[in-house]
What we know:
Blueprint: H1 21-32, H2 34-40, H3 45-60, H4 70-76, H5 85-101, H6 110-119, H7 127-141, H8 143-154, H9 160-176, H10 184-195, H11 200-217, H12 219-225, H13 228-231, H14 235-243
Helix pairs in contact: 1-2, 1-4, 2-3, 3-5, 4-5, 5-7, 6-7, 6-8, 7-8, 9-10, 9-11, 10-11
Amino acid sequence: SSSSSSSKAGGGSSGSSLMSEADALAKAESLFGSEILSKLSSKEWKERLSAVEEIYNKISNNQVVDETGEITILTLGEKLKDSNFQVIAKSFEICGLCFVKATRPLEALLSQIVSPIIEKIHDAKAKKPGGGALCDAIEGVGAKPVLDRAFGIAKDHKNPKVFEETLLWLCDVIQQFDPQFMPMKNCVEFAKNGIANSNPKVRAAAIQALGTFRYYAGEPFMLFLGDAKDNVKDQTFISWLVGTL
């Protein structure tokens, strides 16, 4: 991932229809071979892990070209929710790699990857590969479709850790991508939801996110802050936020 917006950002195809999983599996056999696919569906986690590692290496080394990433991501399917954390982590990395390598990354693939990643964003072993994959998706199809989908899942999640960790991941996103390519209003609204949350760790993460926005985005960010100033109890933070402009 880059320190600014990629040249591809926002340029992915937004077609909403994906091929069927059956079609993807049929095409995957010619891409990856039947042995890998057989191991991918094994009951033994070590075989599944071996399969996802081989898939990753083939794409990474350009032995396999999946122009949109569609065949690979649909073939992974339930491996994004596997019972073994190593299989999950490597599957997330494959998804990110697909968006990096694709010549025509598909926005519609977000329907396959964002939910399983956000569901695991609070897991210490999955958050880094998952967050990285979502950043790769931002590189491929732009920030707004990725973030809007992530925010929708996280803000009403029954586990407050999911909301908290999504806010902390958003801090990384803001630092990594040029703010002018970010849907700043949506980001601030998401953080404002966090400030209103009853969980103190969610509120702390929301304040951290707002501070990060303020630092990296400057004055444009203030236009979106609005009534959030009244909801933040930490007046020292607020005076820093609004007083340094």
